[in-house]
User: What shape does this take?
Amino acid sequence: MRINKYLATCGIASRRECDRLIGEGKVTVNGKCAEIGLEVSDDDEIFVNGNRVAVKKNEYYILNKPKGYICSVSDDKGRKTVMDLMPQNAGRIYPVGRLDYDSEGLLIMTTDGELAQRLTHPSNEVPKTYLVKVEGTLTESNLNPIRSGVEIDGVMTKKCKAHIVETNKLYTKVHITLTEGKNREIRKMFASIGKEVMLLKRIKIGEINLRGLNRGTYRKLTKQEIAYLNTL
Assistant: This one.
C-alpha cells in the first residue's frame, strides 16, 4: 500500500495532506524519512511527528435488528438506534445500508468503508432476501407484477425473484430477493398489488444468513464470511 493511503487509513489526514507531511520530513519508515509514493506494509515501523501509527483492523458484525430501532449511529429525536445493541468496545462501527424503523432482520455492522460501499452501490447488484408477511391469501400468479417490475414514484423496479413459502386464509409469507434497495421499496411493491405488509424481515445478504441469531443479538463475522462478502 502506498504510504499516503496507509496514513489516511490510519486516520492521520487525507492522502493529499499526508503527502504534505511526507514532503516536510515528518514521516519516517523504519527509521528513515519517507518518500512520496513509497510502498509500505503492516510490518514496517511508521512514525508521524515522532508517534508510531498503524492501521487498525476492521471490525465486522452481523446484527439481527428488531423493530423499533433506526439504522443510524445517532438520532436527534432520541429514538433507539442499532448502536444501542452493539458492544461499546466495537470501535467506530456503522450500519451497512438500512432497514427502516418498522423492519427487522439482518444488518451488517462494520468499520470497513470500502466493503460498505461495495455492498450498497447499486451497480454491484448484491442480492438481498427478505421474508414478507401480508394479510390474506396470495397465489404465485399474484406475484408476477412484482417479479416483472412495478412502477414506484414514476420509476420501474428491477426484475426480482419472489415465491410463496406459506399461505392460508389469514396471511401469506413470501421470500423476495432484490438487487436494489430503494426507500420502502418492498412495502410499495406489495401495495401496488393491493397488499399491506405486516412483517418485513431481511434474512440474507448474498449467502450470509441469520441462522441461530435471536432478535436484538449480534455476532462477529467469520474470516470466511468476510472473504465471501468481499467477492460480491
